[in-house]
């Protein structure tokens, strides 16, 4: 019985070693791109989400203006109109939603609203870095800069297989290069190399 088990283990290790020598790397089905040709994620207009902090100005109405934090569902409460769902909206779309809420409630006639993000939600780094965790987003940051912020690569990091999940933990992983721009809420994963 033990001899059969040892033989099976030896066969499995041999086949793994042969596929590694042949250059065959298997990419999990939920990963796009490869180390040879990393993907470049498109830059899109920023969409608001939980953790963002906003400065909202309702012109000529200082009592309605202020700073607001989006809760875990991407919502916040505005004076008079109540809860507003900002999750997935751009700042321009949110301006329009607030204007509509004040007009529909007949609180204001032709309100003018300005929305600016004062503090972006964090991004996350996991895997083979020296200090994995969440970090404050800085506009224009690249993957290389984010990894430096996390203390650099760990000893066993697969430096050419860095992945990003954009759009939450359920999003598809994409292998990217070090010059890829990071977005708030991104999950950057540095996998472990095998040899």
Descriptive overview:
This protein is of the alpha+beta class and 195 residues long. The chain folds into two domains: 29-44 and 121-190, Outer membrane lipoprotein wza fold like; 53-119, wza like domain (wza like fold). Helix content is 21%, strand content 23%. The chain has three helices and eleven strands. It has helices at 2-21, 91-104, 143-149; strands at residues 31-32, 53-58, 66-69, 75-78, 82-85, 113-119, 123-127, 133-135, 163-165, 173-175, 187-190. The strands form three sheets. Strands 1-10-9-11-7-8 form a six-stranded mixed beta sheet, covered by helices on one side. Strands 3-2-6 form a three-stranded antiparallel beta sheet, with helices on one face. Strands 4-5 form a two-stranded antiparallel sheet. Strand 2 and strand 3 form a beta hairpin. The protein is elongated. It starts with a helix and ends in a 5-residue tail after the last strand.
Name of the CATH architecture of the largest domain:
Roll
The helix count comes to 3
CATH class of the largest domain: Alpha Beta
Strand content: 15-25%
Number of strands: 11
- Overall mean confidence score, pLDDT: 83
Strand order of the largest sheet: 1-10-9-11-7-8
Low-confidence stretches: 1-29
Proportion of helical residues:
10-25%
Q: What gyration radius follows from the Cα positions, in whole Å?
A: 23 Å
Layout: helices, strands, pairs:
Blueprint: H1 2-21, E1 31-32, E2 53-58, E3 66-69, E4 75-78, E5 82-85, H2 91-104, E6 113-119, E7 123-127, E8 133-135, H3 143-149, E9 163-165, E10 173-175, E11 187-190
Parallel strand pairs: 1-10, 7-11
Antiparallel strand pairs: 2-3, 2-6, 4-5, 7-8, 9-10, 9-11
């Amino acid at each position: 019985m033990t001899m059969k088990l040892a033989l099976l283990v030896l066969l499995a290790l041999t086949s793994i070693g042969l596929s590694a020598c042949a250059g065959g790397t298997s990419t999990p089905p939920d990963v796009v791109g490869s180390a040879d040709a990393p993907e470049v994620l498109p830059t899109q207009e920023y969409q608001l989400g939980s953790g963002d902090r906003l400065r909202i100005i309702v012109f000529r109405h200082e009592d309605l203006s202020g700073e607001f934090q989006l809760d875990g569902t991407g919502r916040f409460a505005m004076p008079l109109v109540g809860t507003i769902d900002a999750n997935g909206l751009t700042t321009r779309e949110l301006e329009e939603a607030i204007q509509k809420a004040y007009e529909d409630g007949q609180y204001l006639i032709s309100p003018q609203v300005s929305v600016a993000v004062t503090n972006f939600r964090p991004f996350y780094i996991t895997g083979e870095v020296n200090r994995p965790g969440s970090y404050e987003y800085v506009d224009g940051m690249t993957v290389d800069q984010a990894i430096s912020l996390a203390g650099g690569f760990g000893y066993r990091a697969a430096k050419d297989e860095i992945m990003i999940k954009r759009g939450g933990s359920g999003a598809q992983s994409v292998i990217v290069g070090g010059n890829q721009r990071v977005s708030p809420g991104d999950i950057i994963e540095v996998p472990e190399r095998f040899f």
